Predict the 3D structure of the following.
Amino acid sequence: MFTIVRTHPDIVRYAVSLQQRDSGSLGFLPQAVFEQHVDRLFLGLLNGEPCGYILTNGGWQGVLRCVQVAIEYDVRRRLYGAMLVQAAEDYGLGLGCTSVRLRCGAELPANEFWKSLGYQCTGTLPAGKRFSCLNVWGKKLYPANPATAWKNGRPRVYATNALKQSEYRARLNAKACGQTLQDWKRSRYGR
């Protein structure tokens, strides 16, 4: 069973050890960074054992940045990484972020992973010694339930414009007769 937690006694120790094992594809972050930002660290547990993590920033200026993402080699391609990314995206939505951005070495197979999750490569940046360049990936975030404010309740959806106009005329007639909107809805729809 796969679960994602944000508190675990070994969360920092595990993230540092996995980072050291995958140092060829991950950048180096000192342990102090993980300790300082432990509130933005998501740990994936497979049958109670750590199998991957994702470290994000705090969503500055509405953009959530995935600072570092890693998953154990032997559990890749089983959607666990996708579930970690989804948890981070949900965290970003909770912060009010409208997009996610990250950087990935151009030669890494992780580029296909990001593409499969709907991210788009928006550009490249110069890299250090390990990669020819860094691909910059981004994705827009859309809340599942967008916040809206309707003065008179949820608007009705009509199959045609003629039906919409007919309903509008009926409401105008009810208003002209002195009927309140609530009474009109009760008489019209039995509510």
In short: The radius of gyration is 25 Å.
